[in-house]
Write a structure and sequence with these properties.
The structure holds two protein chains of two kinds. Chain A is α/β, with parallel strands linked by helices. Chain A folds into three domains: 13-188, P-loop containing nucleotide triphosphate hydrolases (Rossmann fold, 3-Layer(aba) Sandwich); 197-259, no CATH class; 310-700, no CATH class. Chain A has helices spanning 40-48, 92-103, 118-131, 142-147, 154-161, 176-188, 201-211, 219-230, 245-259, 263-285, 295-304, 310-353, 358-396, 399-412, 419-428, 430-436, 443-452, 462-474, 480-508, 530-565, 573-587, 592-600, 608-616, 628-637, 642-653, 659-669, 672-700; strands at 28-34, 65-71, 74-80, 108-114, 135-140, 150-152, 165-167, 286-288, 519-521, 567-568, 571-572. A six-stranded mixed β-sheet of chain A has the order 2-3-1-4-5-7, with helices on both faces. In chain A, strands 6-8 form a two-stranded antiparallel ribbon. In chain A, strands 10-11 form a two-stranded antiparallel sheet. In chain A, α7 runs antiparallel to α9 (245-259) and α14 (399-412) packs across α15. Chain A is elongated, with a radius of gyration of 29 Å. Chain B has one domain (5-76): Ferrous iron transport protein A (FeoA) (SH3 type barrels, Roll). The two termini of chain B are 12 Å apart. Chain B is built from two helices and six strands; from the N terminus they run ββαβββαβ. Chain B has helices at 25-33, 67-70; strands at residues 5-6, 15-21, 41-47, 54-58, 61-65, 73-76. The chains are: A alpha/beta, B alpha+beta. The interface between A and B is large, with 48 and 36 residues. β9 of chain A pairs antiparallel with β5 of chain B.
Chain lengths: 701, 77
């Protein structure tokens, strides 16, 4: 018997991501496919009870998540495929999605559609139906469609497509049981009359003559394989064992080439057949009650992306977020810090009580516990404020508008406007920003975005910047928190400016090339669910980032303690390192201690300031300056000036990314070379800037 | 009389229908995936602060395109 070999011509590796094993033979694998930003992840989360991150912008899901959904005692493995507009395209993600649907051994597909934009979504549904008839169409965002007075004739759609159609509002968990019931039914009795996409006569006859070679397969698979064969430029040798197939293929290809002169013309016919059939089905089932439903969104857009108001409002918004973060975090930070000092004493007493030697007690308490305590009290409050605010912007649909506003600037750097989105993610965590770069299609532009991501300060660096701004610049006037926010916005603006300059530099040197095409979907503004935002940003982001920081902070605390306590001769290792670095650091307006702190802070940027204090006070443990005034006194005693503070802040903005980010970059680029470049690039920029600032200042003082 | 004009010249608030795509390769494919084929109606909705990119209403979705791409889409009034 002849079976069609897998037609995986260009990348088998793309399937690696999708390697799924059933735990039990009765388990079913269900793929969730759909256009970007149709609420696929919301459906996924609601079904699996998981917390796959969701947000109101296209391309949110960059890796395929999987989760388990139990329904009527049966286990379903759900796989959330990154959103695609089509399966015909040649981007890495879309190919992987298509290969998974074709060869991933899936039992059924849930095709998630946006009710407010059904016609375009149907295009993808038709393409999925070409791969398998085992499809349940899930029309999501029904609540939004109702508001916009869009009426969908669900029954008619189901009849036309020949597969079940279910409507849901996943955000409110409506319709989901029905959805899984339908999937269950579908698996026991697969659809027999699923819609078959038809093409103009010359293509149809070519498909059917090739399909006769695959009659052992079911009709859909035979057609699919035949069509895929026709799309190849050369006859794939995997198929050469099938007798006569190559001759038929050559003959049919010749006929098609006569009809459609170029490959492009052929593809055009394929695409427009799909689009037109989707349009026809859409027209038959859609009724628009209110054409002017968009007026509110357009009014908001005219403000947020307006020529005069767009950019200032964006800056104001960010300054506002920073202000809220700084002022709001002050008080809880102090409380936490006091709490940890108290707990440390208890912990120390406990260690002594169970009879540990003094040096072990010291190491555990002053080393590990204190570093961990510091990071929690410095990082947790600002993150617990910043992340919900940021998630709010994300849910509202503002992030794509930022990309829209900033694209021109990125375009002139020959980079992609979506880099604005990854840059914004970088404010939270650079490692997350680097992973987010997958939304950029062109490999060259993606690499630029990866390499420049750490040019914007992440949450681990904000506390350092804020502390230095407060001590040296903002003063203690009644409006100091406003000044703080303003200076911080300036610092961030410097980071953004350098992102542009370096992106441009990369485009002109090692990553030369032209800007690729750009199509960015601007989703409708959506009313965010405040409760969900809080839960999601606290659990998914805050605790996740904190957990990661702690995982590196505990061992880092140990290493630090050893550096500060193990003596060689009469000096500690820490002193040796900082004295060794001192002359060099002097050239760039820093000192040996500051540079050492940044080096030792590689695992987590948050511990840079504590290390400095520890070294200055030549104490064996991290020093918690109980007030910023005390911190200022320590710095001043050790010869700090405003220039030192500026240089430290600049170096804080531009130095090597933290170890987590570096490892993420290595994983994303699959290259140690780019990881090294991503560490050297900001470090060089920082050193050069600091050197300039230091040299210029010496002219005046 | 030839009335064709590139999409990039479509003023805000007006619409026209696509008559030809003058781009090739991956961008042509992207545009087609968004449903831009011969006969598709496109409305110009919103300009970004710098005037480029511009957001268009295409088959119910709002899509921002750069001028360098939108000038390759020929329109009929």
């Amino acid at each position: 018997m002849i079976t069609a070999p897998l037609l995986q011509l260009n990348n088998t590796s793309a399937l690696e991501d999708y390697n799924i094993k059933k735990e039990h033979p009765t388990d079913c694998i269900i793929a969730l496919a759909g256009n970007p930003n149709v609420g696929k992840s919301t459906v996924f989360n609601a079904l699996t009870g998981m917390h796959q991150h969701t947000g109101n912008w296209p391309g949110k899901t960059v890796t395929n998540a999987r989760g388990i959904c139990s329904h009527h005692g049966k286990k379903y493995i759900l796989v959330d495929i990154p959103g695609t507009y089509s399966l015909l395209s040649h981007s890495k993600e879309e190919e992987a999605a298509r290969d998974f649907l074709c060869y991933g051994n899936i039992d059924a597909v849930i095709a998630v559609c946006d009710a407010t934009c059904l016609e375009r979504n149907l295009n993808l549904v038709l393409q999925i139906l070409e791969i398998t008839p085992k499809v349940v169409v899930c029309i999501n965002l029904m609540d939004e469609a109702k508001k916009k007075k869009i009426d969908i004739d669900q029954e008619k759609l189901s009849t036309l497509l020949g597969v079940p159609v279910v409507t849901t509002s996943a955000k409110r968990k409506a319709g989901l049981t029905k959805l899984m019931d339908t999937v269950e039914q579908l698996l026991s009795s697969p659809p027999t009359r699923a819609y078959c996409v038809t093409y103009p006569q010359p293509i149809e006859s070519a498909i059917s003559s090739l399909a006769t070679y695959f009659q052992e397969e079911n009709k859909t698979t035979a057609r699919r394989t035949a069509k895929q064969l026709l799309e190849q430029n050369e006859f794939p040798k995997e198929f050469s064992q099938i007798e006569n197939l190559e001759n038929t293929w050559n003959h049919e290809k010749e006929l098609l080439n006569e009809q459609y002169q170029t490959k492009e013309a052929f593809q055009d016919v394929i695409v427009s057949s799909l689009v037109k059939q989707a349009e026809k089905i859409g027209k038959a089932v859609l009724h628009f009650g209110n054409e002017a439903y968009e007026t509110r969104d357009r009014k908001i857009d005219r403000l947020l992306t307006g020529k005069l108001t767009g950019i200032p409002l964006m800056l104001l918004l960010f300054a506002g977020i920073f202000w809220l973060t700084i002022t709001g975090a002050n008080y809880p930070s102090q409380m936490l810090s006091q709490l940890f000092t108290f707990l440390e004493k208890l912990f120390y007493a406990g260690c002594v009580h169970i009879g540990l030697p003094t040096w072990v007690c010291e190491m555990l308490c002053s080393g590990i516990f204190r570093v961990v305590g510091w990071i929690v009290s410095v990082m947790l409050p600002p993150m617990a404020i910043f992340f919900p605010l940021f998630t709010l912007l994300e849910d509202l649909g503002y992030l794509p508008r930022i990309a829209f506003n900033m694209d021109k600037a990125f375009q002139s750097c020959k980079a992609c406007g979506k880099q604005a989105l990854t840059m914004c993610m970088g404010f939270g965590c650079n490692a997350a920003g680097v992973v987010g770069c997958r939304i950029i299609d062109s490999p060259r532009e993606r690499l630029i975005a990866v390499l420049t991501n750490s040019f914007v300060p992440c949450n681990g660096r904000f506390p350092t910047l804020i502390a230095l701004i407060t001590i040296f610049f903002a003063g203690s006037s009644p409006y100091s928190s406003l000044w703080q926010a303003l200076y911080l916005t300036l610092a961030v603006a410097l980071g953004v400016l350098m992102t542009f300059l370096v992106s441009r530099f990369l485009s002109k040197t090692i990553l030369r090339g032209h800007p690729s095409s750009f199509a960015l979907e601007l989703p409708p503004y959506r009313k965010p669910n405040i409760g969900k935002i809080l839960i999601r940003s606290v659990f998914d982001r805050t605790l996740y980032v904190l957990g990661r920081a702690l995982a590196v902070a505990a061992p880092a605390g140990l290493v630090l303690w050893l550096c500060a306590n193990v003596q060689i001769g009469s000096q500690t290792i820490l002193t040796y390192i900082s004295q060794f670095l001192n002359p060099f650091a002097g050239w760039v307006g820093l000192d040996g201690v500051i540079l050492t702190a940044f080096l030792l802070g590689l695992p987590a940027n948050e511990i840079v300031v504590p290390i400095m204090l520890m070294a200055y006070l030549s104490k064996g443990s991290l020093e918690e300056a109980s007030s910023l005034l005390q911190m200022k006194a320590v710095f001043l005693e050790n010869g700090w000036t405003q220039i030192t503070a500026i240089c430290t802040m600049v170096f804080c903005l531009f130095h090597w990314p933290c170890s987590t980010t570096l490892l993420t970059i290595k994983k994303e680029t699959k290259s140690s070379k780019w990881m090294i470049v991503s560490a050297l690039l900001p470090a060089l920029v920082g050193l050069i800037l600091c050197f300039l600032i230091h040299s210029v200042s010496r002219l005046f003082y | 009389m030839n009335l064709e004009f590139p999409l990039s010249q479509l003023p805000v608030g007006q619409s026209a229908t696509v008559c030809q795509l003058q781009t090739s390769g991956s961008m042509r494919r992207r545009l087609q995936d968004l449903g831009i084929i011969h006969g598709t109606k496109i409305e110009c909705v919103l300009k970004s602060p710098a005037g480029d990119p511009v957001a268009y209403r295409i088959r119910g979705a709002l899509i921002a395109l750069r001028k360098s791409d939108s000038k390759t889409i020929l329109m009929n009034p």
